[in-house]
Amino acid sequence: MRKPRNSADFAEFSTVKAFSDEETRYDRHKGYGDVDVALVFPSGYDHTVGNLGYHKAFQIFNSVEGVNCERFFYDPSFTKYYSLDSFRPIDEFKIWAFSVHFELDIFHILEMLRKKGVPLKSAERKEGHPFILIGGSLTYFNALPLWDLSDIILYGDAEESLPELAQKIVTAMAKGKNRRGLLEAVSDMAPIALPPLEKSHRVIASFSSLNHYPSRSSFIHPRGPFGHKALIEIGRGCLRRCFFCVTGFTRSPARFLPFEDLKREIGGLIEREQAITGKTPGFGFISATPTDYPHLSQLLEFLDQSSLSFSFSSIRLESISDALLSGLRQGEQQSITIAPEAATERMRRVLNKGITDTQLADALERIARAGFREVKCYCLFGVEEETETDLFEFARLVEEWRKLGFYKIHMSFNPLIPKPNTPFAGRTIEREETLRRKKKFLENALRGMCQLHFESIRNSQLQYLLANGDRALSADLVSGESGDAIQKQLLQRVRLQERAVHKSSSISIFD
Ligand code: SF4
């Protein structure tokens, strides 16, 4: 591909090329095919590296005869959207497949379509416009806000349905089918919805065993979640049922990769890395709760004997063991990420988090004994049952942890966002005013004791609306208004809802 002459395009091209040049690639695009698929992660590059669903889709598409799939990502400054693989612009691709894992990324998809002159409503697209295919985490619990902008929505696990869908698309295109003909050609598949035909899905795809379809990195980059480590999915779904989290309720049953298959995946990635760089990679093991992996002790022994460095995505506090901590320390992991969510046992019971005060204290003591001095802690606030005492307890916990020797404590607070298909469905996000007061209260209580991060309240409100959105919301999103105007409208809707709820509820101490 010739380098762009225009300076803005050249800057965009250079950004994409810089990421691409620093990657170690275990899988390649084909570079030829009857159907070109642009696989888009509608968020920043860093997120593409850590999302194994995206990597899996890349592998699946390229395994289908006749398909050439290339990777794209979103950046607010982009206008051309160059491929990370061939640097061709996205306009040259017939299928735009979006891997959507976070509600606010829907705005990025809309922005990309708008910038590329593609009609936002699928019903208004003509021959020559790309097909917009949607898959990813949102399809497990609520893809309705994406209804009007999608040509095809693929629900749930893609491992079995995506190859079939891609094959049918190749065949339909080879036969010269028009837009409608192509949609009709895939319309017998159960886990897909076809909004232009008003056809809804019949099932959310789920396969029984991870060993048929292990997920692992297709490429790695220093900006990955664990730096330059290769990722392997060891479990999908979650054995737990925290009331605020969709994973435990929508990706069941939880499935784990058998140990022999995991060893084979590790061996395969070592071979690939050595063939490219001559080095042995480190590993990041991905699962909602890696410490629930049933073969954890075997895995730790194997990693120790093989002198492989590793990281885990996060650890459940009650399943922490000294062997795990010592292995993580040897792998040069500096900090531990934990998610007690609430500071008091009473609030953890409200959230069904299932961690006692004793387990929390014991885990932090073990972590400190293992030599860790940094801890990242995920917490929720904005739960109607919480009191000032529950929030103030965060400060007491941080004080305790400082006494244990932690000098870098990072507390990350997210407002509770009630989601569909969970026991908190039907609740509303707390009033903006209340959330702001609680945030202020926490800031005052924790000032100078730790690093603090709060998710934006505005973004949380938008996320709440999108997570619980319906087809009416979908119609609003493609109404043609600018992204800012739509977001303002949505926030106004949250305020109206707040007023209605507030009139009928009791007033908390924070009001
Ligand atoms: S918050 Fe974590 S432990 Fe709880 S259900 Fe979700 S993934 Fe599982």
Range of helix content: 25-40%
Q: If you average the pLDDT, what whole number results?
A: 93
What ranges have pLDDT less than 50 throughout 5 or more consecutive residues?
none
Overall radius of gyration: 24 Å
How many strands?
17
Describe the structure using short key phrases.
alpha/beta; Transcription Regulator spoIIAA; six-stranded mixed beta sheet; four-stranded parallel beta sheet; 39% helix; 15% strand; globular; binds iron/sulfur cluster
Précis, in short:
By secondary structure, the chain is an alpha/beta fold. The chain has helices at residues 7-21, 45-50, 52-63, 105-115, 161-174, 179-185, 247-250, 259-277, 296-305, 322-330, 345-350, 357-369, 388-403, 432-446, 457-467, 471-477, 483-504; strands at 24-25, 35-41, 67-73, 95-99, 131-135, 152-154, 192-193, 219-220, 229-233, 235-236, 255-256, 282-286, 310-312, 335-341, 374-381, 408-415, 451-454. The protein is built from 17 helices and 17 strands.
Structure characterization notes:
By secondary structure, the protein is of the alpha/beta class. The chain has three domains: 7-197, Rossmann fold, CATH 3.40.50; 208-313, Transcription Regulator spoIIAA, CATH 3.30.750.210; 334-511, Transcription Regulator spoIIAA. The protein contains 17 helices and 17 strands. It has helices at 7-21, 45-50, 52-63, 105-115, 161-174, 179-185, 247-250, 259-277, 296-305, 322-330, 345-350, 357-369, 388-403, 432-446, 457-467, 471-477, 483-504; strands at residues 24-25, 35-41, 67-73, 95-99, 131-135, 152-154, 192-193, 219-220, 229-233, 235-236, 255-256, 282-286, 310-312, 335-341, 374-381, 408-415, 451-454. It has a six-stranded mixed β-sheet. Iron/sulfur cluster (SF4) is lined by residues 238, 240-242, 245, 247-248, 288-289.
